[in-house]
Design a protein that fits this description.
Blueprint lengths: L1 E4 L1 H15 L7 E6 L5 H18 L4 E6 L4 H14 L3 E4 L8 H9 L4 E4 L8 E5 L1 H15 L3 E8 L4 H15 L3 E10 L4 H14 L5 E4 L2 H13 L6 E6 L2 H8 L4 E6 L2 H16 L8 E4 L2 E4 L14
Parallel strand pairs: 1-12, 2-3, 2-4, 4-5, 5-6, 6-12, 7-8, 7-9, 9-10, 10-11
Antiparallel strand pairs: 11-13
Helix pairs in contact: 1-10, 2-10, 3-4, 5-6, 7-8
């Protein structure tokens, strides 16, 4: 059963739980492997996890942070290295939600609980994610409204992880409700990077003359898609995405075709992941092992009121 929390409530609950949990578990070393530290979202998660671990375990608590770099073999080895390093807890943002299960099983066999953050991961004892289906709905709902329910759209897809799959699912749910919207492409993997978004979108815009809007699975992909459109001298394309990163804040305020991003909240995800991990390290059984944190749609009109990943407007 999934448990939904608002951003404000999640922050309050997580802070109280961390303070209480610090007395129940000896959390001194935590291993963290994220999809890609080159992506500012995962960098923000890693930093927030480190802060939460120190808050829970004290200033000497250690957080070992590594980047999976979209490489399953590399991330699996990282989990094995965490086990050898004697960590108390592993927090992982999986590069492949299913295939990482073998490595997680080895961690659990060694007595190290694993918490999945941002994406699901087979075998993890707890999962903390943004409500990615809703994020896709928000971003593509904006497109549907801007196009008045009629037009040709592209979906720049991404790696086969649950978060990406759910965003695309939510997006397609919205488009399916508008007979006048035609999806020209939905299966091209932009690998969640600016370069990938640029390359995929360049190919798709070259293949399709009439494109009214583009949904990308994250902000770096959207920035790449915007660059592709500019290089091909295409104008008037509505681009929406998911993340709410500092880079997309600047894009929403600048001369780009990016008009909206469904914002994730790294600090809320990190606090909830460490909260769950503290309970698992203490031997508790989680009543709600799956936590969904609600996203918030940020647009050109509302970005001025947005408190972003760095806690500033």
């Amino acid at each position: 059963m999934k448990h939904f929390v608002s951003a404000a409530l999640a922050s309050c609950v997580a802070a109280l739980a961390l303070a209480a949990g610090a007395q129940a578990a000896d959390l001194k070393k935590v291993g963290v492997s994220v999809v890609d530290l080159g992506n500012p979202f995962f960098g923000a998660i890693a930093g927030s996890v480190d802060a939460a671990v120190k808050k829970a375990g004290g200033p000497d608590a250690e957080t070992l942070v590594v980047s999976g770099d979209y490489d399953l073999t590399k991330q699996s080895s990282q989990i094995d290295n965490f086990i050898q390093a004697g960590v108390d807890l592993i927090i992982v943002s999986a590069v492949d939600s299913r295939a990482i299960g073998a490595a997680i099983k080895r961690a659990e066999a060694a007595g190290v609980p694993v918490v999945a953050v941002d994406n699901t991961a087979d075998g993890a004892k707890a999962t903390v994610t943004t409500d990615n289906v809703e994020a896709g709905r928000q971003a593509c709902g904006y497109i549907a409204e801007k196009l008045n329910g009629k037009g040709n759209v592209l979906i720049v897809n991404g790696p086969p992880v649950s978060g990406v799959i759910d965003r695309v699912k939510g997006c397609k749910e919205v488009f399916a409700g508008h007979e006048g919207i035609k999806i020209l492409s939905d299966n091209q993997n932009g690998i969640g990077t600016r370069e990938g978004g640029l390359n995929v979108t360049t190919g798709l815009l070259t293949a399709h003359d009439d494109v009214n809007a583009i949904f990308t699975i994250n902000d770096p992909s959207a920035i790449g898609a915007d660059l592709a459109a500019k290089q091909l001298v295409r104008t008037g394309i509505v681009i929406t995405t998911v993340d709410g990163s500092p880079d997309v804040e600047a894009s929403l305020k600048g001369n780009t075709m990016i008009e909206a991003s469904s914002a994730q909240l790294p600090s809320e995800l990190a606090d909830a992941a460490v909260q769950a991990g503290m309970k698992l390290v203490s031997g508790e059984t989680l009543e709600t092992p799956d936590v969904l944190v609600a996203p918030r749609l940020i647009t050109r009109e509302t970005v001025g009121d947005y408190v972003g990943w760095n806690g500033k407007k």
